[in-house]
Design brief:
Elements lengths: L1 H20 L3 E4 L10 E4 L3 E10 L15 H4 L2 H18 L7 E9 L9 H8 L13 E7 L9 E10 L1
Parallel strand pairs: 4-5
Antiparallel strand pairs: 1-2, 3-6, 4-6
Helix pairs in contact: 3-4
Amino acid sequence: MRIPLLAATAAMVATLLPVAAQAQVTRVNRNPNAIILEGAKVSAGTDLFFLSGQLAAPLDPKKPMAENKTIEDFGDSKTQTISVFNKIKELLATQGFTMSDVIKLTLFVAADPKTGKMDFAGVNAGYKEFFGTAENPNLTARSTFQVAALVGPQYLIEIEAIAARKK
């Protein structure tokens, strides 16, 4: 009696293993007009990559970093957002990920000292160059926070990312 039960259990486990081994990322977006997701579900067996907050690179890569001290050295909110996403894209590639694998972003945005306001439209314009495009139709879950300041007054945005892909 035990052998048929053991064989049946083994057969059932064997049929479940391929399903469990398939990693899956489910993007939740009930609003087709939204530029961000409502959420993302990551199933077991998925590689995750958590990226620390990234800041913009100076506009002039030849200028010593210590001499880049103003917003003019880094650009406006849109320019800095694009710069940060390019850094994220490069970091992802070092681990075999792409921008299509990004499922969650956290954006920390400081007010532009010239206006005293956060440039949310500029940030979104930069975001739209990387997500919801022909090259990368995927969107991300995202939170955006206005902060009093970042690590230096020349920075207008810092972005953290989480990427997920099938193993």
